[in-house]
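Our example copied in:
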Amino acid sequence: MSEIIKLEPENYWKTWNVGSNPELAQRFYEELLSGNRVTFVYVEDGEYVGEGSLVFDEGDPDYTIAGQRIYLSRMIVKWECRNHGIGGEILDYLVEYAKNLGYIEISLGVDIDNVGARWLYERRGFTSTIFVGEDKDGKYVKLLKRLGDA
């Protein structure tokens, strides 16, 4: 049995991937506590195998504009569970959740060389490129989807 559930802060440290970057994990946890982030996990047979978050204020107008644009953050599926449609289910869920909150746009950032993720995002309507850049982790692109097109 599988389902997508809202991650409560007390269960945050139970997710499988928080140890890979402790500083980032702590930041995400604090955002979850403050209400600036809402995270949903894909649960399969009682195990967390995927997750995705929406962030209300990222401090970057490419990513968030109050009441208009919300940021899709940290969409990830366990390596061994990829290519089974889980990422698409999480993405569709987050897009619908954002629409129900009244947002008209959703943005995300993805590494240019992450071909699988980019293919999924573009297939799901993230077709407007709003920025191409590079940071310490490499080249990336910021993509935008108008939710009226969902």
Residues 2-149 form a domain with the Aminopeptidase fold (CATH 3.40.630.30). The longest helix spans residues 86-100. The mean pLDDT is 94.
